[in-house]
Design brief:
five-stranded antiparallel sheet, alpha+beta, seven-stranded antiparallel sheet, homodimer, 18 strands, globular
Chain lengths: 515, 515
């Protein structure tokens, strides 16, 4: 593909602020930074397309350098796209209008770990896994384990309100924030404190965490940390129905027991999970179903799946005959004595629903493979399919309703499975995975976008939130109005105040573009 | 004292909105509503003074009526003071510029209790104790037990960011809010949702909770509730020093154990607590000290205390010779199995500091008398003394520093004791109680205000927050600038946007008055 010519004036201007090796306009770099890990970008990439490359990439090394770049961009009204690990899946880092990709990965220092305050001050460009490893060397943990941990940065966590796999115990990233350093569009460096028991300013955390780089550039954060848990224990149960499984989770959480891991797999996901296990504990009908579905998904190139996916209506009907039992995995972390008591209470609740005890096996298996899923998408795309995930959420009462509405919307056009994780006393997230097929790029893209529209519309009209932890980006931007209502006007007013020239990640988060 | 004449025009205007029995301009009412439960107001009342009576009191019965009154007040630029139980202690409901006292106590309905969502929608005028009793009848609890529970309203809780005695487990009131209904200065009725997993608007909870009626009138709230705990258990330990006690609490909390009750008494408070107990477990020097201090405070009319308080410098020196040991009470609530495990871990931590195990007695004694303290102030004032409490807070690292700074500031002029409660993984609150003496109204008032100035200055310069849960009101308004810094400018801008005529509780929270 052809890239726009290099803007030499822009490069010369940036060279007044940064060293030459902090600036790149090479084609490989511009192509790399023009995409993220979204399925849409992968679909394009498989067709040798990168639609939204930036004009230039810069690597500032200090907050002051960030501030200078931002000031400069503001003075010239040049779009600025903050960039972390590129693991986003909603197009949040696409350079829709060109401009400067501001890679923050060189701001990667742990500035201070305070074992009395039990918090850590860190630059936002640090990689998630490296950060966690450094904490664990000191017998501490952030408690944040998104499946993107090997790629994502702390800044990315914050920009999208990320959730880790243990969020039921440790909270989402926004629950961990005690302070932020933000570079505003005019270059001002602002410090925000957000701790109970500390002198206060107006607590603007809610504004910047989750703003996807549209209101300011996050350069530092103070995050809560925890002592490494003494002990860990897994349970698993097979519930007779999804609804009973959800009721079980709700009761466990609302009684004040907080497992670290909560994962309830829907019927299909339960079978597929089983099909991955070395040893299956289930048998009979389930086993034969596993045997028939196993080749379908492990041999993803199998022609039969393509045929299936061309007739998703029939596939949907077939899947309605699934036996309907659902597996729940619970994991507990903390003091041995406490988690034993917690596990006992959780077990009591599950057994009241006559759920079958599956022992620690499924939990241990999950733990071993917990980051694998994200790396399994490539072969699916290689085989000409597309796949994606969608994470919606709602309160307990509405959860089953939301699940059925979104699942029905997707299942007309693709194979869809789901699990319920990120559970809280108030409600729970639903994580859908879908696999679809289009004969060529055009058809794949059309179908992919159609599925998203249908699914998001089902979500919105069923009272779910369109994003639990992946963010909004470009993918869901069109549904912010449905979700926020009048609140979006308020957010736009804030945007206009903080970034009057709309240089900060324009086109994202459903904010109204400047006219 | 003389009250300003009744404003008949105002009454006639209000009669167009409300029934006659919803409006009062009688002197007893105006005098009652011209004060709160602050020590300053009590000092004045003992001298037959009520400095800031409203012109009129109204009792709206619906949000719509509130909206109409607010609209009307706004159209005429008449000050409006929202009023709950009158249990505030910072002058937050004084009618500094006259105007309308807007009593919300007739908005007292529990609108909906949802056992699936585990939340309750309630009108803000409901009394705290009645509300909690209704929840407990259904085997639920709010988990919020301020010592003002018999007087305060839910609206008052929210206006001041109230904390209950079990805040370590259940959080402060702001942690319980899932939704708000707010009447803005122009009469608009706005609904705010603040739940993870729900479609979002701009989350403005942080703005309105704690705004003390200066930004809007809170008329409804959705609050998190909990199942009544299955079981309860108390522990108590005598630590060799305050610092060791604080270290013990911090370690217990930062390891993830969360007691419901955490109370560490400083040296003097430990002795006085002991002197109240039927059976003291301590002996020797402590017992003799108790015996000498007991008459001093239980017989508060004793002349010797007046003499003591005239020579607080010497008293301070005397108190430095206290044996220095401090009592910690821990209370656990929840499932029997879990709290037994938690108690065991907490015990281990305390015993590592060689703290003496005092058994469940002190905790049970505390529980029995936990609301009594607030009703013991009257005899102190009757005897010509004044007394007050001051609740500051900071993070763990700074806690001992803050304690010594504020204690030293107060102890020059009054008898001061303190306990540390409302403990969190991040830090803890310090609750000072002080008793002083002035020969007459003028001297009492001067000394009282002088003590507050000195104490708040010590707090600010030691990095503490000037309020953990009593709010700011008039009492601490002058220190908001020190505490919030540039944040106060932002808050003032928000005030000017939301309440351009400054009708909402003017003069409170340190906001800049209109010029």
């Amino acid at each position: 593909m052809e890239l726009k010519e290099v803007n030499l004036k822009l490069v010369r201007d940036l060279q007044k602020i940064l060293r030459k090796d902090q600036i790149s306009v090479t084609n490989p770099d511009r192509l790399s930074y023009g995409r993220d890990s979204s399925s849409q970008a992968i679909i394009w990439a498989r067709a040798n397309q990168v639609k939204y490359p930036p004009d230039v990439i810069v690597w500032p090394e200090t907050t002051q350098e960030v501030s200078k770049v931002v000031s400069f961009a503001n003075s010239k009204s040049i779009p600025l796209i903050p960039f972390g690990g590129g693991s986003g899946v909603c197009g949040g880092t696409w350079a829709l209008h060109g401009g400067i990709a501001l890679d923050l990965k060189r701001l990667n220092q742990i500035l201070k770990l305070d074992p009395i305050k039990m918090n850590v001050r860190v630059q936002t460009g640090i990689n998630g896994e490296i950060f966690e490893r450094e904490l664990q060397r000191r017998n501490m943990t952030l408690g944040h384990f998104p499946s993107s941990i090997y790629v994502a940065t702390v800044g990315g966590y914050l920009a999208c309100r990320s959730a880790g796999q243990l969020s039921t115990k440790y909270g989402k990233i926004e629950d961990m924030v005690e302070g932020l350093e933000v570079v505003l569009a005019n270059g001002d460096i602002v410090s925000i404190e957000s701790v109970k028991d500390q002198p206060k300013q107006l607590d603007l955390k809610e504004l910047f965490v989750g703003s996807e780089g549209t209101l300011g550039i996050l350069t530092e954060a103070t995050l809560k940390i925890h002592a490494m848990p003494e002990s860990e224990r897994f349970l698993a149960f097979q519930f007779r129905s999804l609804e009973e499984g959800l009721e079980g989770i709700r009761k466990i959480l609302q009684r004040g027991v907080s497992p670290a891991v909560v994962r309830l797999y829907d019927e299909l996901d339960t079978i597929l999970f089983g099909s991955h296990k070395e040893k299956s504990k289930t048998g009979g009908v389930k086993e034969s179903l596993q045997n028939s579905l196993k080749p379908m998904l492990t041999c993803i190139k199998n022609r039969s799946l393509k045929i299936f996916l061309k007739h998703t209506d029939r596939l949907g009907k077939f899947l309605n005959y699934l036996p309907g039992s659902c597996m729940l995995i619970l994991g507990f972390q903390g003091f041995k004595k406490i988690i034993e008591a917690e596990a006992e209470i959780a077990e009591e609740v599950c057994l009241k629903y006559q759920a079958a005890d599956l022992g620690p096996g499924p939990g241990l298996y999950w733990k071993k493979h917990r980051y694998s899923v994200s790396y399994k998408l490539s072969p699916i795309f290689d085989a000409g399919f597309f796949a994606d995930t969608m994470e919606v959420a709602t309160t307990w009462k509405n959860l089953s309703n939301l699940y059925h509405a979104v699942r029905e919307a997707i299942s007309k056009h693709a194979l869809v499975l789901a699990h319920f994780s990120h559970a809280y006393p108030e409600g729970c997230s639903i994580y859908f995975t879908f696999v679809g097929y289009g004969e060529n790029l055009k058809k794949s893209e059309d179908l992919y976008q159609y599925i998203w529209r249908e699914a998001l519309e089902a979500c919105v009209s069923s009272g779910g939130t369109i994003s639990h932890h992946h963010g909004v980006g470009v993918l869901k931007a069109g549904y912010m109005k449905d979700e926020w209502g009048a609140g979006l006007n308020w957010l736009n007013r804030v945007k206009n105040q903080l970034d009057p020239r709309h240089i900060l990640n324009p086109g994202k988060l459903g904010l109204t573009p400047l006219i």
